[in-house]
Amino acid sequence: MQPNQYSHRKVTIIGTGLVGMSYAYAMTIKGLVREIGLINRTAARAEGEAMDLSHGLPFVKPMDIQAGGYELCRDAQIVVIAAGANQKEGETRLDLAKRNVKIVEDIVPKILEHNSNPILLIVSNPVDILTHVALKVSGLPSQRVISSGTVLDTMRFRHLLSEFYDVDPRNVHGYVIGEHGDSEVPVWSRVNIAGIPLDDYCESCGKSIEARKIAIENDVRTAAYDVIEKKQATYYAIGLAMIRITEAVLMNQHSVLTVGTLMQGEYGLKDVCLSLPSIVGAQGVDRVLANPLADSELHALRESARILREGLDSIGY
C-alpha cells in the first residue's frame, strides 16, 4: 500500500494516564512517528512523562516528544482521546458514560481550534458512547472519528482460541463485533485457522470447540473486569491495539480492524457507533464490511446496538 502523504508523522495524546502512556511507550519502541504530543489536565504529569520517554531516545528511532497545551494538536494526523475517569471494580463501561461525556464535550472543540481535520481516535470508556459524542460535537466526517472499538476484544478472542488449539494466534482469524462491552458478539461463524473454517479444523485435529464456546465468550467479555480486580486497570493490551490502528492509518495499510464507527445502514443499523470489521487507512475508515452473519449473531448484534442506543438516549444524544 502507498504510505500516508505526510512525511512528518505526528500523534497527539490527550490523557497521560496508564492507557495513554502505555500507547506512547509502545509508539517510541515501534518508531511509528516523528513527533508525539502529550496533553494532560495536570500539566506537570504530561511534562514528567515527556521527560521520562525522552530519556530513552538514544536507544530508539529519532523523534520529538513534547508536553504542552492543545496547540500540540496542530499538524497531528491522529489525535487520541485517552482522558477520562477510570472504570472502577464492578462498574460497567456504560456506567462511566455520564462522567466522561462532559470531558469529551470539553476536549473536542479545543482540538479543532488547532487542527480542523484530524483523525480522532477515541479510547476512553464507554468508548462507543464517547465516539458518538465526539462525532456529533466535532462535525467531522464519520470516517475520521473512530474508536479502538473491539480490536482488543478480538485480540482476546484470538488469544483464547490459539491457547485451546495450541497454534500461533497470528494464524487464528476471527472477530468480536458490536459494543466494546457486555453485549459484544463473538462471530463464531466466521472463525478460521490458517484459512480453514473452524468446524473443518476441529474435524481435522479431533478437538471440538463446542463445549468451550460459552466459557471462551465469557472469558473475552469479562477479561477487563478480571484484570481490574487483580491490578486495578488494563493498559498494555489496549496500548498495542492502539498501535495497530495507528500503523494502519499512518502507513495507509487498508487493514481490516474492528474499530468503532458510525453505522450507516449496515445490518439495518443507523445512528449508533459500534464495531464491525472495517478497512482502515490514511483517511480513517475507508469501508465497513457487513458480511453475512449467522441468525443468532445478527440478532445479538442488533441487541447490542439497541443497548447502545438506549445509553445514548439516556445522555441526550
TrEMBL record:
InterPro entries: L-lactate/malate_DH, L-lactate_DH, L-lactate_DH_AS, Lactate/malate_DH_C, Lactate/malate_DH_N, Lactate_DH/Glyco_Ohase_4_C, NAD(P)-bd_dom_sf. Coiled coil: none annotated. Beta-D-fructose 1,6-bisphosphate binds at residues 158, 173. Residues 150-313 form the Lactate/malate dehydrogenase C-terminal domain. Belongs to the LDH/MDH superfamily. LDH family. Pathway: Fermentation; pyruvate fermentation to lactate; (S)-lactate from pyruvate: step 1/1. It comes from the Bacteria. It is an enzyme of class 1 (oxidoreductase). NAD(+) binds at residues 15-20, 40, 45, 70, 84-85, 100, 123-125, 148. Allosterically activated by fructose 1,6-bisphosphate (FBP). HAMAP family: Lactate_dehydrog. The active site is at residue 180. Homotetramer. It catalyses: (S)-lactate + NAD(+) = pyruvate + NADH + H(+). One of its GO terms (cellular component) is cytoplasm. Its EC number is 1.1.1.27. Pfam families: Ldh_1_C, Ldh_1_N. Substrate binds at residues 87, 93, 125-128, 153-156, 234. One of its GO terms (molecular function) is L-lactate dehydrogenase (NAD+) activity. This is L-lactate dehydrogenase.
